[in-house]
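Subgroup meeting minutes
Present: P.N., E.W., G.H.
Scribe: E.W.

1. P.N. recapped why we're keeping a running log of single-chain structure predictions: easier to compare across weeks, and new members can see raw inputs and outputs side by side.
2. G.H. added today's entry (596 aa).
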Amino acid sequence: MLQRALGAATLAALISTAMLPFIRRVALRWGWVAKPRHERWHRRVVTQFGGVAIWAGFIVAAVALGPRTPKFWAVLGGGTALFVLGLLDDFIRIKPYSKVLGQVIVACGLLLAGIRVEIIPWEWVAVLVTIVWFVLLTNAINLLDNMDGLAAGVVAIAACFLAIHGWWGGSAPVLVLSTALAGASIGFLRYNFPPARSFMGDAGSQFLGGTLAAVALMGTWKHTTQLVSVLAIPVLILSVPIFDTVFVTVLRLMNKRRPFQGGTDHISHRLAIMGLTERQVVLSLYGVSLGFGLLSIYCAACRPVTMWVILPLSLIGLLICGAYLAKVKVYQLERLTTDRQAQTSRGQVVIETTLWYKRRIVEVVTDVVLIGVAFVGAHLLRFEGMLSYDLQRLIVQALPVLVVLKITMFYLCGLYRGLWRYASLTDVIAIFKAVSLGSVASAVALVLLWRFIGYSRAVLIIDWLLLFLGVCGTRVAERLLDELITSATVSQRQVVIFGAGDAGELALRKLKQHRLLRPKVVGFVDEDLLKVGQSIHGVPIMGTREQLTELAQVSRIDELIVAVPGLSRQALGEITEQCRLLGIRLRSLSDVLVDE
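Output recorded in log:
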């Protein structure tokens, strides 16, 4: 079985790669090219219909080496139907609701062939979940195809993990179909990885999404019997396209835009706007997809109770990333044109104010999930991963009370008044107070309500520690993401700060918070020789002012910022002359503080 799977992957990749040069020549001859448009990300003329090569490679490999079962043929037929539907859309532009109708018809065909979510006991619910899953994932891959190499690479990674689960569960159709899909996508990536020479079009994206959705429903999870595992494993594997679809849809609806229109507001576009190159964006999302795929393997083997810790933590991570990326301004703000339009009712003002502070809703939801995860995780650690029925009953009994008490303490201690981007030691102290008071209040409540019968004191201590670490982690997550993106960004100018003291540290923080220019601080220079070799926030103190000429020759320095209060006029004049000779721009700390 494994040899057939590897053969299918190899054959699909070879066919897909071999067909693309011919398809590109035909597309160029007939003018089948994608031209740059304002609602699309690409800025070059690129040939279309690369999806034909993906479909052909997959079909040939699957038919040649796959087990010819009824469900197997149903997947091939459904994928081909979506390929034809996408091909028509590439030629004549079908309306979105017409495409969705076609996807629903294909999903119904798969249901008739027996491909559906099998573990849900209520058949009508299973039918609805299957249709929604199929339509959602088909459109998710279509929407994800918004940057060179992104959709094909994510599909290849997801298909590889589906193949692993198929092999683990002993499902030959899933294994062969997944490897063939991965091979066809990898073969196409040779011409689609940034900078792309061929686009897959709707024919390719709809085929990949529909086939991936169908394969994920083909009894891949025979090695697990838990409903949570059955539903969670495919969602984890396909988390990147699902998250992108939900994220874009929610933000478009909030900004009064149609969810199915084209645009440059996807997570990939936002990362690129923040300064990452296209390759960095694509590789980063590959890494996220790979991480969630590995997590799916762990979830398939772990106890069901452990999954109730892993899945909420994954949700928290996605919420934090979503809130962070939502700050990127990709929509033009609509201005009121008349005084009458500016006058709104009190109710409208309340609604708009609530939406304005929607980040607070994310904070509260995150904290509620963290409280539950910390409490369950504390029990798992205390009882070595084994939770009896009585312990689970006690957790369910106490958790609502703990959530109310701890959220109240968080509010009273001011945790919902700060900005995560500027989290500091003061915020850590506030978190310590809030978590500690919440734990004390919880212990008192457990004594008063249930006399603490059955509960463990050690659990409360572990719960306090886990919650404190979790809340601190979420509060510094935004700064961490800023640091990671800034360090990966190709900066237009390199800066050295003169003065490795309090003023220099202030200048460094200000420069790191600059979202537009993204200057790169390469180091400090200081008059104190004893400071040389040390660092501030990871930025080295490279030398003294006398070594500035030597440092400028070794490292390209575009700008020097003077951050030494009370510097004498003579010293400032010498620095100014030195910068003039070296061709380095000179600025003061006050210039940096007022620069936006």
